[in-house]
Amino acid sequence: MAAKALSFDVGDYVVYPKHGVGRVIELQKSEIAGMQLELYVLRFEKEKMTLRVPTNKAESVGMRKLSSDKTLREALETLKGKPKVKRTMWSRRAQEYEAKINSGDLVSIAEVVRDLFRADDQPEQSYSERQIFEAAASRLARELAAMEETDEPAALEKILDILRKAAAIHNKDKVPA
């Protein structure tokens, strides 16, 4: 029953937690170590990578269909929130951010994007902060683009626009009256 709950068709966009949005380009049957396996062949255009996932392992590795509209709205709403800045060491925060990005959960990825965003009038990010921000923003933009049938740059601009507007609101709060 669990195997049937998660089935993808050729042409479907899917989210693989460690790699983001890919597309099922073929269903393959292969014999590996004397066992017959049915495989999803996924193509990740941005990374120019092809991945083969056994159909019976798709659920356990966290592969999923694109998020629902409700989850997308929740993620975009998360971007509007006030950034949460933790005072822990950067290496610890970086690990937490990476874990959220690799979870494949759209709202968690949106939290990373929100927390690491810097408006033009804010202090610049370190190189590693910028890398993690760009990875998270790209992951979010690719899923948004696939859901709204647009391209990644347009989706990224929509995300940055939401972040800029939110930053303008949150930064007003800091100015003494």
TrEMBL record:
Identify the residues that the record assigns to the CarD-like/TRCF RNAP-interacting domain, covering every copy.
7-117
* Any Gene Ontology biological process: rRNA transcription
Pfam families associated with the record = CarD_C (PF21095), CarD_TRCF_RID (PF02559)
UniProt cross-references to SMART domains, sorted A to Z: CarD_TRCF
Query: InterPro entries recorded for this chain?
Result: CarD-like/TRCF_RID, CarD-like/TRCF_RID_sf, CarD-like_C, CarD-like_regulator, CarD_C
Q: Which domain of life is it from?
A: Bacteria
- PANTHER family recorded: RNA POLYMERASE-BINDING TRANSCRIPTION FACTOR CARD (PTHR38447:SF1), TRANSCRIPTION FACTOR YDEB-RELATED (PTHR38447)
What protein name is recorded for this chain? CarD family transcriptional regulator
Species: Sphingomonas kyeonggiensis
